[in-house]
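Following the same procedure, backbone shapes were mapped to integers, yielding the entry below.
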Amino acid sequence: METKLKTPQSIPSACETCPMHNAGNLRKLGVNMENSDYVIALAGNPNTGKSTVFNALTGLRQHTGNWPGKTVARAEGAFSYGDKQYKIVDLPGTYSLLSTSLDEEVARDFILFGQPDVTVIVVDATRLERNLNLVLQVLEITDRAVVCLNLIDEARRHKLQVDERRLARDLGVPVVPTAARQGEGLQELLAAIHDVATGQTVCKPYRAKSESPAIKRALERLVPQIETAFPGLPNARWVALRLLDGDERLMQAVRQGELGDLTRPELVTLPEASANNRVIPLEVAS
């Protein structure tokens, strides 16, 4: 599938094609990037065929274990496309990333802290509205995503039509219809992943902005502080929203410098729009 997000008229520069993942945090998360150029996160609701997509992409090049310090199972595998080697991590199936369960925390932390080069979000084409909640949450965190519109064969069987081109335009990321059990659309999915990973496709994800005036004022104060403390962080607005919501895991990450490599201590003051006004010291990452 050809997407309007592509910009073939310009050849990506070296920095645009460089991997974007956080190698140090990936090691802490138990992911060894040796012999791999890019890392891909595979996210999705339960029962969307995510494991089928994972198996179809990796074949026998996979192994399972647990996340470090967790009882949650993890599967990771590998595939090659062109001259690049990819590692793909199958995240727990979740309905959201609000960290209300251990599975959600694991998935959220991997996307946020590991900063995978591409996050593939598998959705059920027959239950698209239900699945878009997770899609929009992932797009709040990362600028590099591909939506895998799986079970498209089931949608056709139920006489459902999905306009993937319009959906891609509305979401600001590539959308690839697949029927993973039959192998349909997998080559197009690999191409979309490769194009986003290498910078040939630049995503402009949709992000809802419906905050109250008080929250908007708080974001205007907090987001620049986060961006200053963590240069290059692609999700400062989302981090700010979670801090204002009192997310303890995010507060810990800010204190410990997990969001990036800091060169000096800073202070981020949570504005009055939060439940309790707090000053969070941003420690230098060790």
